[in-house]
């Protein structure tokens, strides 16, 4: 399994812009992922709120960047990080745990996202798209962002598990 830096910044938004995707009561994407070795089922989207920072994820299969006959499947995921608190916070680093259908797990750590360490004022969002390559047609990603408040308080924000899966895969 290899993590590829296919990051593309989609937008940076402020509360005065119309970029809030959904509302707190919306249901998550219900695209199921087949069950595989020692892993629970996950949807291709997830949402979590930690310390007033909301992280929303949507993933999808990228057939144009995949070569299934060479055991290479590529997936894009789009993440929106929103500061719902009343204190400015900066995203410092990321930690990913990526598990494929065989149970093989890889961890990826790095500074910021898409080459940036965004500072989010109260109500502000940061949205980006990145990608992940797997050697199997399904997998799961989860992780954390390390952040710091304007006052110097460090905290981790959960990125809830979400599925990476090729459509119409039979297991």
Q: Which short descriptors sum up this protein?
A:
disordered N terminus, 5-stranded antiparallel β-sheet, single chain, 51% strand, mainly beta, 10 strands, 171 residues
Tell me the span between the first and last alpha carbons. 20 Å
Treating each run of at least 4 consecutive H or I residues as one helix, how many helices? 0
Largest sheet: 5 strands, antiparallel
Q: Beta-sheet strand percentage?
A: over 45%
Q: State the shape.
A: elongated
Strand order of the largest sheet: 1-8-4-3-2
Find the structural class using helix and strand composition: mainly beta
Number of strands: 10
What does this structure look like?
This protein has 171 residues and is mainly β. Helix content is 0%, strand content 51%. It is built from no helices and ten strands. The chain has strands spanning 8-13, 45-50, 53-61, 73-83, 89-100, 105-111, 119-120, 125-134, 138-149, 154-165. A five-stranded antiparallel sheet has the order 1-8-4-3-2, with no helix packed on it. Strands 5, 6, 7, 9 and 10 form a five-stranded antiparallel sheet that branches. The radius of gyration is 16 Å and the shape is elongated. The two termini are 20 Å apart. The model is unreliable at 1-39 (pLDDT under 50).
Walk me through the topology.
Layout: E1 8-13, E2 45-50, E3 53-61, E4 73-83, E5 89-100, E6 105-111, E7 119-120, E8 125-134, E9 138-149, E10 154-165
Antiparallel strand pairs: 1-8, 2-3, 3-4, 4-8, 5-6, 5-7, 5-9, 9-10
Short description:
The protein is mostly beta strands and 171 residues long. Helix content is 0%, strand content 51%. The chain has strands spanning 8-13, 45-50, 53-61, 73-83, 89-100, 105-111, 119-120, 125-134, 138-149, 154-165.
């Amino acid at each position: 399994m290899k993590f590829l830096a296919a990051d593309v910044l989609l937008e940076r938004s402020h509360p005065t812009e119309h970029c809030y995707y959904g509302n707190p009561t919306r249901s998550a994407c219900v695209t199921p992922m087949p069950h595989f070795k020692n892993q629970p089922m996950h949807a291709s989207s997830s949402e979590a709120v930690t310390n007033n920072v909301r992280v929303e994820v949507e993933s999808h299969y990228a057939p144009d960047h995949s070569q299934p006959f060479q055991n290479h499947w590529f997936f894009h995921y789009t993440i929106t990080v929103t500061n719902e608190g009343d204190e400015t916070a900066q995203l410092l680093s990321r930690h990913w745990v990526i598990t494929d259908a065989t149970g093989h797990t890889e961890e990826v750590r790095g500074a910021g996202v898409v080459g940036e360490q965004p500072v989010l004022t109260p109500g502000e969002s940061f949205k980006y798209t990145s990608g992940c390559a797997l050697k199997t047609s399904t997998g799961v990603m989860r992780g954390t962002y390390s952040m710091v408040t304007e006052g110097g308080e460090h905290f981790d924000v959960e990125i809830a598990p979400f599925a990476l899966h090729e459509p119409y895969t039979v297991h």
